[in-house]
Amino acid sequence: MDIVDVVGCARSHVYRSLARFADGGREGLLDGRRHNGSALADERFRQTVASLLWQSPQDYDYLRPTWTRELLVRVAEEQTGIRVSVCTMGRVLRRLGARRGRPKPVVQCPLSARQRRRRLRAIATLLAQLPENEVAVYEDEVDIHCNPKVGLDWMPRGHQRHLLTPGVNQKAYLAGSLDARDGTVLWVGDCVKNSGLFVRMLERLDAHYCEAKLIHVILDNYGIHKSHETRLALLGLPRIRLHFLPPYCPDHNRIERLWQDLHANVTRNHRHTDFVQLCHEVASYLDAVSPWLPGGCPVWAETL
Q: Same domain for 121 and 251?
């Protein structure tokens, strides 16, 4: 009992250690695994597993499109001739820092790599050399759904939280801009996403930056940004210049991060049954992002 109290171990561990010492002396207390030889999952094996994670099982003639530990064990054995247990594969994955996550859907940009780099470089040069009397903003639209966006959340073990949906979905739409220099957020909202919504966003930019010589708007290639109505409206907004990102390159539009934060803080897993109340919460969040500015359109929810 004195050993248990001093060392802080279980009584059974003391008894086992005494038995091993009685059988083999000091040698009996050494870790018996030292005779197992070198580890099978060596550096070469780990590098093989790491390379597999950049590929798909279908690259190795398996029907399954996603990896499991069991399938990694099988393919790694085919590549290296080394067979490990599923538990060992789990330790290899942890050592590599691998994780199970959701893939990100992407669309192939139709431009060549050279054309894509040239367009991105032109926008980067514009931002780097932006005169003090000019403004550059990132612009984009986002959908607000009464049906909540489903996302990860913490919940008790063995329990899956239920997320009530209204059945009949309602939608609203926002057009927003993010100042590339100071992060100012401007926005407008409506119950339809059309050229009129985008033109209202341009008009708000023109009114807010009334002292700017030019207003550069960096945006994607969505149809309402190039429509006939938009081109006509730009004739009456001579200070606004549109700069289009390469197609399907949302990662280069900084306002996308604002929309991610909006969903994370307001719309994901929301429990609103009153769509107008949800829209008011969206408006409150966007106003809080730029507290020194008036709201984008405080009564937009009442029009839905």
A: yes
Strand order in the sheet with 240-244: 185-190, 171-179, 134-145, 214-219, 240-244
The 8-class DSSP code of residue 148 comes to P
* pTM confidence score: 0.75
- Would you say residue 244 has pLDDT above 90? yes
Q: Residues 124, 206: one domain?
A: yes
Q: Check whether residue 72 and residue 137 sit in a common domain.
A: no
- Does any domain span residue 53? yes
CA geometry: angle 224, 226, 228, nearest 5 deg: 90
Tens digit of each residue's pLDDT (9 = 90 or more) over 259-296: 999 999 999 988 888 888 899 999 999 988 875 554 44
Residue 118 lies in a domain: yes
Range(s) of the domain holding residue 274? 113-150+166-303
Pair 19, 119 in one domain: no
Rounded Cα gap, residues 13 and 5, in angstroms: 13
Would you say the C-alpha torsion 74, 80, 84, 87 has a positive or negative sign? negative
Query: 146-162 in b/e burial notation, b at 16+ Cβ within 10 A?
Result: bebeeeeeeeeeeeeee
| Predicted pLDDT at 34 | 60
Does 105 reside within a domain?
Answer: no
Q: How many domains does the chain have?
A: 2
Q: Say whether both 118 and 85 belong to one domain.
A: no
Beta bridge mates, 136: 216
Give the residue from 262, 254, 256 showing the smallest Cα distance to 182. Answer: 254
| 90 found inside a domain | yes
In this structure, the dihedral spanned by the alpha carbons of residues 178, 141, 243 and 177, taken in order and rounded to 10 degrees, is -20
CB 83 within 8 A of CB 77: yes
SS3 184: coil
Residues 123-166 pLDDT 10s: 999 999 999 999 999 999 999 998 888 888 888 888 888 888 87
